[in-house]
Each structure stands twice: as C-alpha cells, then as structure tokens.
C-alpha cells in the first residue's frame, strides 16, 4: 500500500533518503526507549469514561467534575512510568529515594540528640564533654550533607526520567497519524500543544516527586520528633482558679494546635490558588501564541502594514497576563503573611512553653534546646502544606492542561478506530490501478458532510486534475487521500509497494541548512551537493546553488514562489510513484507554472499525478479532470472528463478556456 513520504511512514519500497530517515528515526527511538522503557514499547491504558454533566448540576459542580476527570486522566497515563511498560529504573530510584529520606531523618534525630548533649555540657561547664561532642558533630554534619546530596540526585533522577518517559508517550501520540495537524481541525481544550508538552508536562512531573519526597519526609519527621517532644516535655501542671490542671504531652498538643491554626489559615486564604494559577498559565500561553503568530506571519503583516493592529492585539493579551499575575501576587502576599509569621513565631513558642519547667529546675538547658529544635522540626513538618500550597496549585493547573491535550488525542484515536463517527478505510487496489476512491465520503469530526460519495479509479501514469469552486472540499479530499483526514466513510486504496509524495500549497521549510530544506523529509546527506545543485537548476533556483551548505532562516528568506520551486526540487530528488499537488503552483506565474509541470512530466514520466488547482491552464498538463460541486449534504462529483493535451496549442487551449469562463465570472 502506498505511504506518504511526507509523513515518514514505512513503505515496502523506499528511496535512499527514506532508508536514511527511517534509520535515524529508529536510532533516535532506540535511545529514547533505552532511557524510558523496559520492553521498548509503551502501551497506553484506556482512558476513563468521560463524565457527562448531570442536567441538575450547577455550573460549579459541572466544572469540578471536569477538573476531577482531567486529574484522573493525567494519572492514568503518568503512573505507567512505574508499570510494566515503564522505565526500567523507576522503582530502583523510587525505593532508593525513600531509603535516603529515612536515613536523613535518622541523622536529623542524631543531631537533635547532640543538640541536647552539647547544651547540657555547656550548662555544666564540662570542657572535655564539649570537646568530644564537637568531634562527633562533624561526622553527623558530613553524613547529613552527603545524604542530602544523594537525595537530590535520586529525586531529580526520577523527575528527569519520568518527564522523558511521559514526554515520549505524549509526543509519540501527538505525531502519530498526523494528529498534530488534525488538532487544528477539531474542537477541544488543546490550544498551544507545544507549550503544554514543553512546560506544563515538566511541572506536572517535577512537582509530584517533590510532593512525595516532602510528604514522606514531613511524616517521618513529625512522627519521630513528636515522640521526642512527648518524652522530653512530659506533662505540664498549672493552677487555674485554685484548681490544678495537668496537661500530658503539652508540647505535642501545642505543636498540633499551632500547625492547625497555620495550615487552616493558609487553606482559607489560598483557596483560590488553583484557579488563579490555571488562569495565569492559560494567559501566558495565549500571550506566547500571539507573539509566535507575529513571527510566523511577519511577511504578510509587514506587507499589509498591520503593526499597529498586531501591537493592539499583543497589548490586550499582555494586559490579561498582567491582570492574572496581579491576582496571583495577591494570593502569594496573603500566604506569605501566614508562612512568614509562622516561621518567626515557631522557634519562640517552645522556649516560652518550656521556660516554667526550666526555671523550677525540672528541665535542663539541653532539654529545653532539644525541645525547641524538635518543636521547630515538627512545626515545619506540619506546615509543609503551608509552604508548598502554591506549588500544589500550580501543579493542578499544569496537570489539567496536559490532560486536556491527552483528552483531545483520545478523541482522535477513537475516530481512528471508528468509534462513534465513521472512519475512512485505507487498503490496496486490485489489478493495475494506482489509486482508487471507493464510495468515499469525507466528514468533519462531528459527522457534518464535506464531500459526498465519490468513486474514482486512477490508472498508472494517469494525470488527474481535481477542480471545483473554492469551498467544495478539494483540499479536504486530498488530505483524506494522504491519510491526514480520518473522518468519513468508504475507502482510499493504493497500489501495493508504491510511494506517495505531497506538495502542499505552503511548503514546509525546516530550520538549518538549505541542504536540509532541499532533502526534507529525507536526510540531508542522502544526496550529494551536485545532485541537489542539479535539482535546483532544473527548477530555476540556480542562484541558491552556492548556498546549499549555508545555514539561515530560509523560511523567512525565500519567497512564496521560491518555496514552491524548492518543493519541486524535493520531488525530483525523491522520485515517488504517486504525486499529489495541492495548489502547488499557486505562487508561480503562468510561465513558471508551465515550466514546473513540464519538468515533472519529463523527469517523472511514469508517475501518477493528482492535482488540485483552480487555474484552467493546468488542464493542458493532465489527461483527466474531475469536478466537485457544492451540494446539500456535501460536495458531489458532478463530472469526469478525459482531457487530450495538444502540444503546441497549450496556450491557445488555455486562452479559449479563460474566454469561455469569463462571462460566468462576470456574471
């Protein structure tokens, strides 16, 4: 079955460029798999069923259900890192990190005990004890520092590998079957997928590891030093109104009450943190997208003099960013008020609580200092959420954004399987036919018809012109032929072992050297400089021959006509069996267009050509024409005409057709 070269899909018959590209892709994939997967293939678990909002739900309840679904969707994919098809070192790093956390808490306890001993020795003026304890401190400090460094290595190792594994999974799904293109054609919350993959996915994998390490450390620290507080503090006896009240474990109770007040305050003050962070991230993404649009369409904007209008749009988008940042700053200021106040008061509280016992002689100075240190550690552990609530909110927003992209990819995958909406089948032709469209219907992703039932058979070497008014679905039909448009019914069939090459109206020019741009999608070194120079000469780009090895922003340097000529040079190098031209000469004048078509026919005499174009002059280069006409229920194939090109009279035929169509246009 024919496979489009432009999508880098495997085919039985490959050019040298194709072999090299496939080889390099395979090598790259192997490197990624070596880092991210044990068995070399990631199997995505099925996504959860989409929650349909209950009609009786309020708007807030429906929105909360959507957010809950998104977090569930994220974890279904993300937890696969520790699954059968996950990273082979995931559990080793995870268990190692847990062991390091436990050991670090142990060293914390050792330093806490040393703290008591050193102050007791100072209180007793025991110089020998102080000297020995000073010698003990350095191994404890060095061990604690080394454990901290090892803990950072293990934690960031998990983050790096998890991000690599999940990025590989999402990017593979995004690039498969042209989904990166199809996302532009369907509705859904998946704007700026590149930002979600690069930035949101990074935060979505970094933060949970920090949270897991932080919560584990906080829990172990709290449990360990609560025991210390209970043991050292004992019970506090106070006399109130002649009554004696004994409070067992008063330091523990004080630590819990203090932490509850601080955490409750931060939860109350920062309850809008998640929504504010999500709004801020969305505003940032929209601002970045607006700037990218200006860069990508710089020539058109400059020619039209649209700088002021673009500036106005950018200013409005940036104003939205600043507004969201102001809201976020307000949230941060309120939480800082609590966290900063808590960090100042926490060390003083245990000293005040222990002062009565120290003054009556029931506690030593060392015990007071040990209790103060333990109280601070417990308070830090209990206040972990206070300090990390902003990051938790940011993670929620990022995880939901990457999950929204996953949901859109889920929808495209369901369309590919034919779930709910019909899917165009792809197969092989029977006999000698190079291409056949069997009862082909093309629809939108919601089932709306674009092109109705179409029956076309294209024989080897035939040159077919697809014509029709703008909006009749010609380009959509071409996308369906190329496999980029999955929605519809019927089938598109190719002759086995034949390769298809697409020439779109706006050729893609990759970054890097001109050599890479000429060879694309093949590898730059698959053809010699001489071969590329010859291809450039044939398409009228001799002035670029000396710049083949030059690296420059060719997408900005080359004009629209030069880009289309460059696309024809690619075509000559790749030498495919089936060529699809989608308005591929629209930026060329009539003379240049004739030259390009003459070259294709001369250099690829056996190639089967399918062209989409409005210009009637192109009929002279085709042996057959089909016409699409807009009808209710989708465009229909209304005529199938055999064309008989006549050498030497091509211009006359073109003028005749233009004169014949002139009254219709005037009308």
TrEMBL record:
This protein's membrane topology, according to the annotation, is: Multi-pass membrane protein
Q: Which residues form the ABC transmembrane type-1 domain?
A: 95-394
List each copy of the ABC transporter domain by range.
Answer: 435-657
Pfam families (UniProt xref): ABC_membrane_2, ABC_tran
* Keyword check for Magnesium: no
Q: Which GO molecular function terms does the record list?
A: ABC-type transporter activity; ATP binding; ATP hydrolysis activity
Location of this chain's protein in the cell: Cell membrane
Q: Which InterPro entries does the record cross-reference, listed alphabetically?
A: AAA+_ATPase (IPR003593), ABC1_TM_dom (IPR011527), ABC1_TM_sf (IPR036640), ABC_transporter-like_ATP-bd (IPR003439), ABC_transporter-like_CS (IPR017871), ABC_transporter_sub-D (IPR050835), P-loop_NTPase (IPR027417), Sigma_54_int_dom_ATP-bd_1 (IPR025662)
Highest taxon of the source? Bacteria
Q: What is its main location?
A: membrane
Comp. bias (Basic and acidic residues): 16-32
Please give the start and end residues of each transmembrane region.
Answer: 89-111, 131-154, 211-232, 238-261
Region annotation Disordered: residue ranges?
1-58
Q: Which UniProt keywords apply?
A: ATP-binding, Membrane, Nucleotide-binding, Transmembrane, Transmembrane helix, Transport
* GO cellular component terms given for this protein: plasma membrane
Q: What this chain does, per the record?
A: Involved in beta-(1-->2)glucan export. Transmembrane domains (TMD) form a pore in the inner membrane and the ATP-binding domain (NBD) is responsible for energy generation.
Please state which protein family the record places this protein in.
Belongs to the ABC transporter superfamily.
Q: What is this protein called?
A: Putative ATP-binding cassette transporter
UniProt source species? Bradyrhizobium lablabi
């Amino acid at each position: 079955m024919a496979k489009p070269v432009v999508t880098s899909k495997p085919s039985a018959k490959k050019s040298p460029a194709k072999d090299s590209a496939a080889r390099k892709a395979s090598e790259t994939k192997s490197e990624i798999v070596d880092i991210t997967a044990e068995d070399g293939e990631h199997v995505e678990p099925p996504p959860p069923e989409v929650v349909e909002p209950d009609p009786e739900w309020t708007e807030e309840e429906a929105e909360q259900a959507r957010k809950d679904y998104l977090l569930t969707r994220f974890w279904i994919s993300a937890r696969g890192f520790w699954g059968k098809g996950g990273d082979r070192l995931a559990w080793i790093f995870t268990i190692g990190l847990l062991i390091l956390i436990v050991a670090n808490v142990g060293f914390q306890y050792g330093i806490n005990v040393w703290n008591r001993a050193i102050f007791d020795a100072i209180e007793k003026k025991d110089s020998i004890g102080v000297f020995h304890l000073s010698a003990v401190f350095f191994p404890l400090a060095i061990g604690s520092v080394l454990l901290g460094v090892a803990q950072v290595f293990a934690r960031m190792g998990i983050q790096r590998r998890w991000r690599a594994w999940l990025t590989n999974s999402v990017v593979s799904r995004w690039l498969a079957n042209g989904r990166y293109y199809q996302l532009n054609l369907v509705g859904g919350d998946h704007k700026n997928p590149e930002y979600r993959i690069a930035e949101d996915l990074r935060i979505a994998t970094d933060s949970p590891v920090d949270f897991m390490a932080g919560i584990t450390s906080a829990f172990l620290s709290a449990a360990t030093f609560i025991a210390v507080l209970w043991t050292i503090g004992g019970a506090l006896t106070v006399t109130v109104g002649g009554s004696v009240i004994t409070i067992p474990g008063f330091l523990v109770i004080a630590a819990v009450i203090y932490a509850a007040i601080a955490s409750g305050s931060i939860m109350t003050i920062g309850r809008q943190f998640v929504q504010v962070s999500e709004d801020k991230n969305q505003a940032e993404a929209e601002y970045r997208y607006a700037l990218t649009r200006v860069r990508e369409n710089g020539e058109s904007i400059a020619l039209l003099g649209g700088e002021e209008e673009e500036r106005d749009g950018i200013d409005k988008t940036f104003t939205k960013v600043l507004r969201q940042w102001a809201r976020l700053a307000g949230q941060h200021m309120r939480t800082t008020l609590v966290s900063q106040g808590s960090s100042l008061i926490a060390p003083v509280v245990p000293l005040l609580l222990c002062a009565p016992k120290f003054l009556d002689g029931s506690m030593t100075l060392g015990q007071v200092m040990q209790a103060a240190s333990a109280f601070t550690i417990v308070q830090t552990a209990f206040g972990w959420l206070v300090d990390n609530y902003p990051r938790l909110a940011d993670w929620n927003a990022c995880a939901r954004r990457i999950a929204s992209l996953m949901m859109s990819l889920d929808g495209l995958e369901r369309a590919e399987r034919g779930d709910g909406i019909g899917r165009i089948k792809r197969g092989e032709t029977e006999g000698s036919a190079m291409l056949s469209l069997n009862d082909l219907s093309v629809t939108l992703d919601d089932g709306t018809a674009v092109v109705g039932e179409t029956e076309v058979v294209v024989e080897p070497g035939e040159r077919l012109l697809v014509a029709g008014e703008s909006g009749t679905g010609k380009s959509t039909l071409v996308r369906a032929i190329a496999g980029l448009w999955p929605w519809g019914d019927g089938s598109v069939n190719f002759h086995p072992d034949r390769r298809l090459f697409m020439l779109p109206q706006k050729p893609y020019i990759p970054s890097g050297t001109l050599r890479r741009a000429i060879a694309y999608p093949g590898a730059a070194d698959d053809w010699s400089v001489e071969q590329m120079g010859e291809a450039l000469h044939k398409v009228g780009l001799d002035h670029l021959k000396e710049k083949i090895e030059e690296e420059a922003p060719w997408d900005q340097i080359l004009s629209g006509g030069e880009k289309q000529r460059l696309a024809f040079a690619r075509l000559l190098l790749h030498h495919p069996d089936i060529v699809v031209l989608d308005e591929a000469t629209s930026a060329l004048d009539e003379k240049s267009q004739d030259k390009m078509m003459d070259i294709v026919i001369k250099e690829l005499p056996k190639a089967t050509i399918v062209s989409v174009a409005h210009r009637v002059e192109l009929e002279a280069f085709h042996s057959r024409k089909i016409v699409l006409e807009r009808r209710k229920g989708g465009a229909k194939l209304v005529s199938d005409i055999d064309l008989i090109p006549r050498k030497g009279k091509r211009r006359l035929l073109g003028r005749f057709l233009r004169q014949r169509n002139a009254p219709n246009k005037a009308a």
